[in-house]
Amino acid sequence: MKNFKIFILVLIASFVGFLSATSLSQIKLKNLEVDQSLSSSSTNEPEYSNGRFLAEIIHRVKKDYVDEKSDKEIHQAAANGLLSALDPHSSYLNEENLQEMQTQTKGEFGGLGIEITSEMSAVKVITALDGTPAQKADIKSGDFIIKVDDENIVGLSLSDAVKKMRGKPGTKAKITILREGEKSPLEKIINREIIKVTAVKSALFNDVLYIKINTFSQQSYSGLEEEFNKLIKKLDNKKPRGLVLDLRNNPGGLLTEAIKVSDFFLDKGKMIVSIKGRADDAKQEYFDENNQSVVKNLPVAVLINEGSASASEIVAGALQDNKRAIIMGKRSFGKGSVQTVIPLKEGKLGAIKLTTSLYYTPSGKSIQAHGIEPNIEVETARLEITSNKNISSESDLNGHIEVKLKQALEESKKSKNINDENLKIYDEDYQLARAIDLIRGVSVYESYLKKSD
Prior knowledge:
Layout: H1 2-40, H2 52-64, H3 71-84, E1 91-93, H4 95-105, E2 108-111, E3 114-119, E4 122-128, H5 133-136, E5 144-148, E6 151-152, H6 158-165, E7 172-178, E8 186-191, E9 193-196, E10 200-205, E11 208-213, H7 220-234, E12 242-246, H8 255-265, E13 271-277, E14 284-287, E15 300-304, H9 311-321, E16 326-329, E17 337-343, E18 351-360, E19 376-377, H10 401-414, H11 420-428, H12 430-452
Parallel strand pairs: 11-12, 12-15, 15-16, 16-19
Antiparallel strand pairs: 1-18, 2-9, 3-4, 4-5, 5-6, 5-7, 7-8, 10-11, 13-14, 13-18, 17-18
Helix pairs in contact: 8-9
């Protein structure tokens, strides 16, 4: 009987142990699920999960802040603070900001004509768009705008800074800037205008084609085709020596337009750009889909500088890595991140502009922060003929070299090889002059090789 009781107790203990082990394994499994859930989020601290942390802050602001704030004001401020803290290009767009952004991609908007970004809580100029009030006021890439109408804008979001600079056409804006190399802040008075950005411009330098893309808006590719055909028509069936593609001070724009422009120069199957992000669906590769480039075998030089960013860097990188063009000028800005605009409630609550991935050139180089390095670095400069009266010269001699140079230029003008406008650009734009010289040099060299064969 005693042994039977002992057997029953052992059996009960074993059963309880089994239950305990089973419960323990279930608890461990649940803990594992919780841990996995937490590890898949941005933090493993439960205090920050399920929005409780933000909810408490919002509650405190609504309850204790000195001024009463609406739910809309508080939530939009929270969204903007969260997104702008991620990187300079992520932000919250309210309904008004979203509409402004859509207007900009169409190529017409009001203001000063400055493309900006954020750096160290300050507004940094990417570029002053060609032909705008900002460019006429000599605003340069790399300038930091610290005040608008004597009001400090350091620490403001980009959208708020833009609002300060925009206003009715005809009104003036006083901006204060910090510029590298200057000992004190510079003040500029700029007239606000309706900014109409001409996407593409062109010119003909004797037999060298010149096309400048100012921005990658919806008109960029169609403008490129139109201007190219105009220049070919002007040549009157004469074969061009080559083409200079000017992307200086181009702040970027639409990825679709950058791909189309690259497609214009590349053969079918060539990679243009790849996009890599955290999510699998953010990884994409873009290739040339046309049978052949429109400008096949035509020598191409691409001009870039510190104001070339985003989509213009994609084009420069694609042509450089595919050995389709020589890149000249200065290293580009280095804005190689992709922002996805995600409407909230179909745009009724605005949208979020979120950095979701990075651009990579065909060779796998990241554009972000690195930019595109030119094959030939060319500083911004201007050539001038200098004279020193204290040094004797042969200027008084008949037929000296300066007289001959002037005579040669006059003869060129008379023969219409070079017109006044072209001479002016040669005089004012050293980088462009060097690009045209390169194209002509390549053409001469190729002709020499053909004759040698």
